[in-house]
């Protein structure tokens, strides 16, 4: 089948968690953009995309038109604008001030009740991402090793998710990354963003391949698989580099 759109998760799929692209990956993406529409979708903010992804790419402006940037699970969508040579917000679906207040109160209440107040924090524990509020148990900038050691089996995150979901049943509460819980409007996950992308590109599900590292049930990439898009599971960016090399016919 001829695919038109290759979509990727960001953390642990295109780059190490919260880290910039390796030069090899940047080069492969530049080449992939010449052949396919490419989407990157993640729970992270646009600023995080700039640091990890966009600063590393060297593709020409007209080639960057093929890149579809979807921070916060596609509740924000950016395209490259050739006239201004900059990334422009196409749409944003932000939470209201009242919703944000409720979410922050529920996350604080859950963190207190479950004792998730770390003795040391690396950055803010609660971050307002406009369309999403994220709780990071150790702070946004915690070292990867600390994050991975905090909740290796996912049990702590599930407890907080369940606690918070009961307090704000009208909003969507999900496990995010290794230490984080994301809250959005209901029905916002990567399937939402990929659905938006399919509509924007006037494509069909069968035109898309999604590559992610958390495709098993409960993972933040799983909703894309559940919606019926073909998915490829990877465990690190080096796996993804092999996938892209295969797509480019280079081995
Ligand atoms: Mg990931």
Structural class: alpha/beta
| Topology as a string of helices (H) and strands (E) | EHEHHEEEHEEHHEEHEHEH
Give, in spatial order, the strands making up the sheet with the most strands: 3-2-1-10-11
- Beta content: 15-25%
Oligomeric state of the chains?
single chain
**Low-confidence stretches at least 5 residues in length (pLDDT < 50)?**
none
Describe the overall structure:
The chain has 251 residues and is of the alpha/beta class. The chain has 2 domains: 5-93 and 188-248, HAD superfamily/HAD-like (Rossmann fold, 3-Layer(aba) Sandwich); 97-185, Hypothetical Protein, Haloacid Dehalogenase-like Hydrolase, Chain: A, domain 2 (2-Layer Sandwich). The chain has 9 helices and 11 strands. The strands form 3 sheets. It has a 5-stranded parallel β-sheet, with helices on one face. Strand 10, helix 8 (222-226) and strand 11 form a beta-alpha-beta unit. Bound molecules: magnesium ion. Residues 9, 11-13, 212-214 line the site of magnesium ion.
């Amino acid at each position: 089948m001829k695919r038109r759109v290759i979509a990727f998760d960001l953390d642990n799929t295109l780059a190490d968690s919260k880290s910039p692209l390796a030069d090899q990956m940047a080069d492969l993406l530049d080449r992939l953009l010449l052949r396919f529409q490419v989407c990157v979708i993640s729970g992270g903010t646009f600023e995080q995309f700039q640091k990890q992804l966009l600063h590393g790419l060297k593709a020409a402006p007209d080639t960057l038109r093929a890149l579809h940037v979807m921070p916060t699970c596609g509740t924000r969508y950016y395209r490259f604008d050739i006239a201004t040579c900059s990334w422009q917000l196409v749409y944003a679906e932000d939470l209201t001030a009242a919703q944000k207040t409720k979410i922050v109160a529920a996350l604080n209440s859950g963190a207190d009740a479950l004792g998730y107040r770390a003795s040391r924090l690396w950055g803010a524990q609660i971050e307002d991402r406009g369309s999403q509020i994220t709780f990071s148990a150790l702070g946004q900038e915690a070292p990867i090793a600390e994050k991975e050691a905090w909740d290796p089996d996912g049990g702590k995150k599930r407890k907080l998710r369940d606690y918070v979901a009961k307090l704000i049943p009208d909003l969507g509460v999900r496990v995010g990354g290794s230490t984080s819980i994301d809250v959005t409007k209901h029905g916002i996950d990567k399937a939402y963003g990929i659905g938006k992308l399919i509509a924007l590109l006037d494509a069909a599900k069968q035109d898309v391949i999604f590559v992610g590292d958390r495709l098993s049930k409960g993972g933040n990439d799983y909703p894309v698989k559940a919606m019926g898009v073909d998915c490829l599971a990877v465990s690190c960016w080096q796996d993804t580099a092999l996938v892209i090399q295969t797509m480019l016919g280079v081995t």
